[in-house]
Design a protein that fits this description.
By secondary structure, the protein is mostly helical. The protein is built from 18 helices and no strands.
């Protein structure tokens, strides 16, 4: 994964991209509790087949330009020497491979099964980061005109994915499947911010990607700790846990409030930037996305109420469990503190993000003047 983030040679990047898929699939197959092999196979097929299109597109660029170097390709493509129709198909091949990995609705078919079956450490990294980074780097960096042309479709899919994820999450009783569809909604927010092309939206999309890694990761850890103690992800079997596990309940509530975007937490900053940046361009889609924000608060607070408050269930009464130990608190409290720090001191993060996103937004608005690769993220070949 680190190789994906630092490679500016397209062939080297593709090698790391494929290498990151293989251990993910193997770990899911080995450690999935019930249907690990089936989930791993679905994940592999969903992600590997579009990667074939990506490889063809990379080789086509090399055949035409005799280089895999990102900086040189960016400069050559900006000269407008290729037919727009040819570049359209190449950019689409890149986008499909990345959209599956995000995932973007309706290419999310692997997500729920993989999140449910993957070990917690794998579930924390399997979605979002690689695909979103690659869209920033390659689709917006190499194909700004084609990205702007397909932006209306991507915005529509992002809003549909946000609403779909929230509505399906409301119908879940399995905690891990609820988190999977919550991830779909949160990553759809990032996609919306990217393809509005406003600086605020792009900043919010990057910030929200970081948020998802911290807040979504913490939530997966907390749910897994519940599973270790009670042996089930079924929310209908829980109830009244707050009195017995107050520390776990506190961290669960903090994480949930950060995830739904309560002011002072990191989720609020990301959502506000995405919505405000998108509103300048597509106010009707932002109105629909706002409904998704309300629905996300609904299912998260419903899950907290179901598990921790109300009458104690028979499972909780008959199976006493210990609260968080020192190791578990050492894992979770820094993440909770970071959620608050990123919300209160967000300008420190936004200042760093804006330095990369402002030139990128300018390049998409005016494709003839692409940003230098060093401005975009400072990656190394």
């Amino acid at each position: 994964m680190v190789g994906v983030f630092v490679s500016l040679d397209l062939f080297l990047y593709y090698g790391f991209w494929e290498l990151s898929l293989v251990p993910m699939a193997i770990l899911i197959a080995m450690f999935g509790p019930t249907r690990g092999r089936a989930a791993a196979l679905k994940f592999f097929l969903y992600t590997f087949l579009p990667s074939g299109l990506l490889l063809v597109a990379i080789l086509w660029l090399y055949a035409k330009m005799n280089t895999f170097d990102f900086v040189q390709l960016q400069a050559l493509l900006a000269n407008g020497t290729f037919a727009p129709q040819a570049l359209w198909w190449v950019s689409l091949a890149f986008l499909v491979a990345f959209a599956v990995k995000v995932p973007v609705f309706p290419l999310h078919g692997w997500l729920a099964d993989v999140i449910q079956e993957a070990p917690t450490a794998m579930a924390m990294v399997v979605a979002g980061k690689l695909g979103l980074y690659s869209i920033f780097r390659f689709n917006l960096g190499l194909f700004p005109a084609q990205s702007r042309a397909i932006a209306p479709l991507m915005i529509a899919l992002a809003v549909v994915g946000l609403l779909y994820g929230a509505l399906v999450a409301l119908a879940q009783t399995d905690m891990k499947r609820l988190i999977a569809f919550s991830i779909l909604g949160n990553l759809s927010f990032c996609t919306l911010g990217i393809f509005c092309f406003a600086v605020a939206g792009l900043n919010g999309a990057v910030f929200q990607t970081i948020n998802e890694g911290i807040t979504g990761g913490a939530l997966l850890v907390l749910v897994s700790l519940l599973y270790e103690r009670y042996g089930t992800y079924d929310m209908t079997l829980y109830g009244g846990l707050a009195a017995r596990l107050p520390m776990l309940a506190t961290l669960f509530v903090i994480t949930s409030l950060a995830l739904i975007g309560l002011p002072l937490f990191n989720g609020f900053i990301g959502e506000f930037l995405v919505l405000s940046g998108s509103f300048q361009v597509h106010p009707q889609w932002v109105a629909a996305a706002t409904i998704g924000v309300i629905l996300s608060a609904t299912y998260m607070l419903w899950m907290v109420q179901r598990i921790f408050y109300g009458k104690e269930s028979s499972l909780v009464v008959n199976r006493p469990a210990f609260d968080l130990n020192a190791r578990e608190q050492l894992t979770l409290w820094p993440m909770a503190i970071l959620m608050l720090a990123m919300g209160v001191a967000s300008p420190y993060w936004i200042k760093a993000i804006d330095g990369a996103m402002s030139p990128l937004a300018g390049s998409v608005a005016a494709p003839a003047s692409p940003p230098a690769a060093s401005q975009l993220s400072g990656g190394a070949r």
